[in-house]
Each structure stands twice: as structure tokens, then as C-alpha cells.
Amino acid sequence: MDFFSYYLRCEKEECENKKWSIETEFTLKLVSHNGKSLMKSGKYTFEKADGFGWFIFISWNDLESDYVVNDSIVVEAHVKIIKINDSPCIDSQCIENESQKIFLLNHTVENVSSIREGGYYFTKTEKRFNIPWRLKIERRNGFFGLYIWCDKEQSNRRDWTIDMEQDLRLVSLNGQSLSLKGTCTFKEARGSGWEQFLRWDDMEKKYMVNDSIIIEARVKIIKMTGCEEDSTFSLLLFSLSQYF
């Protein structure tokens, strides 16, 4: 006898020396166009890219006689994530690559529902290639906005510019992601991104898990001018002062 097998599969990427687990409760459902349905529920903790379900969900003959309409079936998976243990899956070579000036900013935003219309949230500032950066999200006119923010101060001694390519990402803890790419030139402290990255309610439905989301910026700096570390000049002044 032939059987219809049905599985829920997690395709989260695996990283060397990085462990993660996702504890789930789920129901797999087979639905006929006439309203008839068959469901089975279970619990499983995913610790690698893997599938879990039932090899014998229903006999193939019963599937064809009771659920196939116009050579089609409807399958559903209802999943509740109980607990996630994870750290960002980042190759250390991608955090800051000096030869190509490539870097990654990654942050988990919690209590997303506390951001009201017109409000915003900044991540902590992190230095990449001696330049301070942070990420910003905002809620405005029903949209979710996402930006990368350059916090380099203006200099009285020289102008500076940073030409770069940016890939801003919204990532769900269940692995779903949305990415928008663009180019930008910074000449002052400001942000670059999208005011209407997606609708706020779509963000809540598709990307928010346990009131949390993950935001990322993947950046490739094409050219930097006038961005030499100011501490070099300060150190020179300090050294010269020893002679007076």
C-alpha cells in the first residue's frame, strides 16, 4: 500500500560551532476543497535543518478519493514556537573584512509592540572601520521604516565622505526574511534606508515572534575619504608636546 507522507521542515542555516534549538508545537492539516479535513498534532525541537512529521499520514488511495479535487490538495501547517535558543549565525570573517571593507550589524529588537505610531527605536552604536554606526526602526503612517545610521561627527579640519552599498534586512525568528538593497553616500551624520520598508501590520503578522524581530545591515564600503582616525592627529600633538 502507498502512503501520503507529510512533514514540517525547518531550513534554518547551520554554522560551525554554533548551536541552536527551536521548540515547537504544531498541527499538520490536510484539507479538501469540500471542507473535509484531517489533522495530526505533535511536538518537536529542531536542532538542525530537519523535517518532522508522519511517514504514514493517510493512505494514498484515501487521499485521492477524499481530498483530491481537480488534481489538487490543500495542506496547512499551524506552528507555535515555544522557545528559541540561538545566537546570530555570523561568520566571523563577515563581521568586519578589512581588505574589502565589508561589515554586518545585527540586532534583536524586543518589545516591538511598545513602539507607537510616530515612535522610533535606535540600537546601540557600534564601530566598524573606526566609524560609529547604529540601526533605527520607526513606525510612521502605518509603515515600518528601517535605516542604517552613520554617527560620524563633522570635522573642522576636513570634509569626509563614505560611499557604500547597503542591504537592510528584516528577519523573523522563524527564518523568514525581507531584504531591500541600495546605495548611499554619507557626508554627515544621518540615516539611510526606507521609510516604507513594509506595512507595520504585515511586519507584525509575518516577522514578529514573541514580540521580537531581528534587523540587519550588510554593508560594503566602496570608498572612504577624509575618514582617517582622529586619534592619529591627537597622538602626534601629544608626542610633540614632550619636547616643549
UniProtKB/TrEMBL annotation:
One Pfam family this chain carries?
MATH
UniProt xrefs under InterPro entries: MATH/TRAF_dom, TRAF-like
Q: Which domain of life is it from?
A: Eukaryota
* SMART domains listed in its UniProt record: MATH
| Listed CDD domains | MATH
Q: Which residues form the MATH domain?
A: 1-79, 102-219
Descriptive protein name:
MATH domain-containing protein
